[in-house]
Design a protein that fits this description.
Layout: H1 2-48, H2 63-96, H3 99-111, H4 115-130, H5 134-147, H6 155-187, H7 191-218, E1 221-223, H8 228-240, E2 247-250, E3 261-264, E4 271-275, H9 276-281, H10 284-299, H11 302-324, H12 328-333, H13 342-356, H14 360-382, H15 386-398, H16 407-413, H17 419-430
The protein binds zinc ion.
């Protein structure tokens, strides 16, 4: 009697494990297929508009620059396709070959299951997963960006950057992992609350410290030089109630000819950064408008709202890990034995992106809403939309932006509305 019930239970469990593995496989393949399909869709859409500069952009691009922007878009898209397929193979090997459970047993067998050893294992896996992407980054920088005249990075600087990133991961990431694993030991079933609080505290600290301690490791930041531009930007800052000392110029030209501006930090530590490339490319009023856009992000508290949302979603993530850590089927589906939290953390880290991918249209839609708000703020602060439109046109031209993405593609991936969408919104405002 006993024997038969055990026998009938075993295949059921097996089916459940294989079902979980199969579900993961389907999700991974679905993302990969969607990525390739979106790239194909976008390539065809761009090529369909390649014949002549569309009427809406006649003032933005001349024929040669437009043709170049299409070549650039297609080259990036082809690289994305290759990279998606390459990432797919790596993820399948990591999840289903059994190499990670084997490594885990070996690692823990040698070093014990302490938080220090477990964190070292997680760190080693993350490092091993980062390595296969390096040739792609190299190719993107020294072949693709180089071909279109954007690259200014030297191989020496490129390696130095990778080294600094590794060092930061060792100094900041590894201790954080140890702390989270210690909290699992110390706090029992409610560990996920504590771990979340700890990660959240770390995030907040980084928002404050990154502009002061981390960004300067990679770039030089200087205050605005004296002169007419200084006066212009200062008076805008005064008008909009933004501390002018927080406006700084970054030597972006050290790595690339791409131009940009961004807002970062909190409260006293807030900072608006203009790339030196931007200052070279834009005229005074256009720069002022771009600065007003960044001040708009600050005034509308966009960074704070994004942080609150990220805190809520990371709480949900930790809760989900705490549930999965109690499910033997979840462990066995990927060749682990239940007992340690470490495989649950690792598997969650590997699989979360497969699910989050489907939410990226929503996240990007939200981000685009903020861009419209910042644009509207800038137009109001400037008293007119023209300088911002002029600045955005130049930015799109200099960066060889794709002016005709497929709506599905931009809806899925674009954190900023397209140039046409932004111009139309600004024109609606002034009507
Ligand atoms: Zn913005």
């Amino acid at each position: 009697m006993k024997a038969s019930s055990a026998a009938s239970r075993k295949p059921n469990k097996m089916i459940f494990h294989s079902f979980a593995a199969l579900a993961a496989l389907v999700l991974i393949l679905a993302r990969w297929a969607a990525q390739l399909w979106l790239e194909r869709l976008n390539q065809r859409h761009v090529l369909a508009h390649a014949g002549a500069v569309p009427d809406a952009f006649k003032e933005v691009f001349n024929a040669a620059t437009y043709a170049k922007s299409i070549q650039y878009t297609l080259a990036k898209s082809r690289l994305n396709q290759v990279e998606s397929s390459y990432d797919l193979v790596i993820l399948l090997i990591v999840l289903f070959s059994g190499v990670v459970p084997w490594g885990f047993n070996l690692f823990i067998g040698r070093l014990g299951a302490s938080a220090w050893a477990s964190a070292a294992f997680l760190f080693a896996v993350a490092l091993a997963l980062a390595l296969p992407g390096l040739p792609f980054d190299w190719h993107a920088q020294f072949r693709l960006e180089e071909r279109f005249g954007f690259n200014t990075t030297t191989p020496k600087l490129w390696w130095l950057d990778r080294f600094k990133e590794l060092l930061l991961a060792v100094v900041l990431g590894y201790p954080l992992l140890v702390l989270v694993l210690k909290l699992v030991e110390w706090t029992g079933a409610r560990w996920w609350w504590w771990a979340w609080g700890c990660v959240l505290g770390f995030q907040l600290l980084m928002v404050v410290l990154a502009p002061i301690l981390i960004l300067p490791l990679f770039n030089k930041f200087t205050p605005l030089p004296e002169g007419s531009l200084h006066e212009r930007l200062l008076s805008l800052a005064r008008r909009t109630g933004f501390r002018a000392q927080s406006i700084q110029i970054m030597d972006g030209s050290k790595r690339s000819r791409h131009s940009n501006a961004f807002f970062t930090g909190f409260g006293r530590f807030r900072k608006i950064v203009l790339f030196d490339t931007l200052i070279q490319q834009l005229a005074g009023p256009e720069l002022e408008a771009v600065l007003a856009h960044e001040i708009g992000h600050y005034k509308k508290k966009h960074l704070l709202k994004i942080l609150i949302w990220s805190a809520v979603s990371s709480l949900a993530g930790f809760y989900l890990i705490s549930i999965l850590a109690n499910q033997a089927w979840f462990y066995r589906a990927f060749g682990f034995e239940p007992g340690s939290i470490v495989p649950a953390l690792l598997l969650f880290g590997l699989l979360a992106g497969v699910i989050m991918f489907w939410f990226s249209p929503l996240a990007h839609w939200w981000s685009r809403c903020y861009e419209y708000q910042a644009d509207a703020f800038a137009a109001t602060a400037m008293g007119e939309a023209r300088p911002l439109i002029g600045g955005l046109r130049k930015l799109n031209e200099k960066n060889l932006s794709n002016l005709t993405p497929h709506p599905f593609y931009s809806g899925f991936y674009y954190s900023h509305p397209t140039l046409l969408e932004r111009e139309q919104a600004l024109k609606r405002m002034s009507d």
